[in-house]
From TrEMBL, chain A:
It is found in: Cell membrane. Its main location: membrane. The keyword Iron-sulfur does not apply. It is a multi-pass membrane protein. This is Peptide/nickel transport system permease protein.
TrEMBL record, chain B:
PROSITE patterns: ABC_TRANSPORTER_1, ABC_TRANSPORTER_2. Keywords: ATP-binding, Nucleotide-binding, Transport. Belongs to the ABC transporter superfamily. It comes from Actinorugispora endophytica. PANTHER family: D,D-DIPEPTIDE TRANSPORT ATP-BINDING PROTEIN DDPF-RELATED, TRANSPORT ATP-BINDING PROTEIN. GO terms for biological process: peptide transport; transmembrane transport. This is Peptide/nickel transport system ATP-binding protein. It comes from the Bacteria.
Amino acid sequence: MFLVRRLANYVVLIFLATTFAYLLAATTLDPRANYAEMRPQPSEEQVDARLDELNLNDKTPLAERYAYWVGDIATGDFGLSVRGTSVNEEMARRVGVSLRLILFGTVIGATSGILVGAYGAVKQYRFFDRASTGAAFFVLSVPAVVIAISLQVIAVWINEATGVRIFQYAGEYTTGLDAGFWGRLGNRIQHAVLPTLALAIGQFAAFSRYQRNMMLDVLGSDFVRTAMAKGLTRRRAFFKHALRTALIPTVTYFTFVFGIMLAGTTFTEKIYGWNGMGSWVIDSIVTNDVNAVAAVSCFMAICVMAASFFSDILYAWLDPRVRVS
Amino acid sequence: MTSTETKTGDPTGERNPEAPVLEVEDLHVTFPGVNRAPDIRAVRGVSYRLNRGEVLGIVGESGSGKSVSSLAAMGLLPEYAKVSGSVRLKGKEILGLDDRRLAEIRGRTISMVFQDPLSALTPVYTVGDQIIEAVQIHNPQVGRAKARERAVRLLELVGIPNAAQRAGAFPHEFSGGMRQRVMIAMAMANDPDVIICDEPTTALDVTIQAQVLELLKTAQRETGAAIVMITHDLGVVAGFVDRVLVMYAGRPVETGTVDEVYHRPRMPYTMGLLGAVPRLDLAEHAPLVPIKGNPPSLAELPPGCPFAPRCPIALPQCLAAEPSLLRIGAQPGLAEIDAAPGAAGESGGPDTGEHRVACIRSGEIDTEQWTGADIYPLPEIPEGEATRIPREERPVVLEVQDLVKHHPLMKGAIFKRRVGTVYAVDGISFDIREHETLGLVGESGCGKSTTLMEILSLDKPARGKVVVLGRESGTLTGRERFDIRRDLQVVFQDPMSALDPRMPVFEIVAEPLRTHGRSRKEINRRVRELLDLVGLDASHAARYPAEFSGGQRQRIGIARALALEPRVLVLDEPVSALDVSIQAGVINLLEELQARLGLAYLFVAHDLSVVRHLADRVAVMYLGRIVEIGDVRSVYTEPAHPYTQALLSAIPIPDPEKERARAHVVLEGDLPSPANPPSGCRFRTRCQKFRALTGEDQRRCLTEEPALQPVSGGDHTAACHYAEKRAVV
């Protein structure tokens, strides 16, 4: 019941976020400019007709365009792109690409961050703790773009040093490759390693810091001592009693970090030449593609809400105290 | 693993049925200082021996090393602690074992009950699972169903009603007392040979404390375990243990049977400690004996006896070397010490079971038969002028009539709706006259603090009225309120958090004066005067609160409250956070101030002994109501309400003979929720008297709420249909 109400809230929020994105894009982007450079120059009537067709004509009042757009949205249609193609079709092609990146990036980054952070707390002020702290702060202080490019540079260096193309850093897969299912999968993984890593590193840094602090708070608590007094070894008490409890606040933190990571996706996709949602939003802003921008915003909002929903469920599962209310 | 250096254990001790179950010998624990800070030597040579089924009490104030020594024995200290000495469990050396080997022993042969039941259980697992874990970790072959059965049986044994169902509940669904029962169940899970109880009742109310102590006795009977009882409460130890070990500054200073230590203490520290406890069973109003000064810092111990700076009978020889724990009469003579200064200082070897004392004058104390009163100078507390005027002729300074405070119980995130009411304070009346102290007592959750906050708010109460110095709350203008606050001041419970840590003491005490627009010159004079009044050195005015000890901070709080020369002082548990020896000093100060300044006190406390010592009248609260009120002597010697009787009976008296002879009224269950009080008499669900009544008589308790009725001459009243005077102390 609680979760159902949450879901209803999310739908409203996603709609609002998308609306704001649409209104912002519709008022600031100027699709008419796309036709200014065109040779032969189309007549104003022709442009108007074309823009009307796309529901992008700035001569139509914004309210009218918005109403039309909302009507489409209600049927699940995000309208047409500036090139006249269906935004929905384009989205269908790209969503999978982005989701793959986000999913693996998050899972790898969060898990490794939590484990390293927790272990760092157990070994506070030892070498492992100092090294992981140093690494995390280094990553946190470097912009995502720089990390992505640096990884590329390192990959090139490794490829050259070994003489084998271990890492691929352009596109999702080598086009025209004929190597059977396993060969294609291997090829895809080769391509995926770098961008996934670029995303995961940022996640790892944020999570390891946070988890370390949470773990330190919990390690000294009485119940960990009780667990040891029962006969658990120090290590077992830490991982069974302390880590489980220290995970609770991290789950809430997950939602916040997720938003930052989505922003990171746009750069990563652009840099590694992946045709995902992130690179699309940049392209659509350049081409004044209002409907596409709104569609991508909607996708991002859904992702954030999904992350938030997921963390709510995790929270309820981890912490029995919230289940009652 | 904890770094250790171990002495070779006694090999003959093994498999000897007569051997003690736990032998601790010359245990030392040091916490290395960080960043060139000096090392903290928390335990410096503790030895004791515990036989099968024996109960040993370890008594000491905070920082005396009593808990650390037991944690060290179980290998529960943080890894950086340095431990040395020897701990033998059933003849086997366990100090220095690696974590895996220690873990096999912990919870099976030796187990522990901790102080704070609210934080000692993992919040995310059910209590059943946590007990099952304790069972299975030592017996992996036991199936889950079997372990679960055992867990339920244990929960039944410790008196959790509906155990099979409650095993599936999480710790936050239990009250503090219930959680402590779960802790005890866990400690009993594998029939250990030794149970170490680290202040098991300190965080609990007295009635719950009585239940838990009863339960520990049951646990001991069931398992035949030896118990180490660590506590600061001399009363708890008196009736419960066989032998006592008194610790001071990381060392045992006196040990012996409980009767020896309580009736014939031979160490000035023990004598002072016993004299500093307010007694529930003594009616005469003698001032308490405070021990001057504070315990030494364990980082920089002075040479010689660590108690010497606070000891009223210290000699120059006391500073020569730290005295050993020796049999009375076995201490070296003063001449010997002069001849070879620094020769002593050994911790005194293993526990011999005799009465032993670490004081070079113990022989002298013994032959002269000195008592605490002979050694400690009795503070003189002037008699107030007004106490000679009969109560009725003194003006009323604070009057509370039918005061009600209900909190709405809300539910829902956006649309809040009221689902119930918490009857925090539900119609109470009392008055306080000039020069008088009213003690307001009751268990936590009975509404005593709410009453206090209602009075201090000066707002119009939901029902009833509060009259402060003739002015009714809620009818005042802003200006009048401001003026009234000058006469109505408060001292809070926790001296650590009641003072701004970033303000020097001078500013803290000067703030009320400044707020009320006193001149700079007057402020300077007044602050110095106030610090002097509460027994602090006026030259310390520039220091920050962190540089003062708990007792001194409470004195600063009192000085701040007195700054504006109030006529009514509200004291919210002012001494409950302080150690016994410090507490006595603050209580004496409060008495002295009342006599000198003619203050009226509203004293809120859960410690009935302190209230008996300090108050003139006492009001006992239960679930938002006053159930008994009257002058202290009458209420304490002849309590008429069953709840008052139970409360008084639950308090252990620091006198082993008396304590063993007393029959305790042990109340059942916890305080009911104030959101849903029982019908009729609110106390009937836990009342020992109600249970003894016939069905006919019970009906009245069920339907009719009793009003306060006089039980004897004077103004002693009790709210019970079947009130009957009965001495319980």
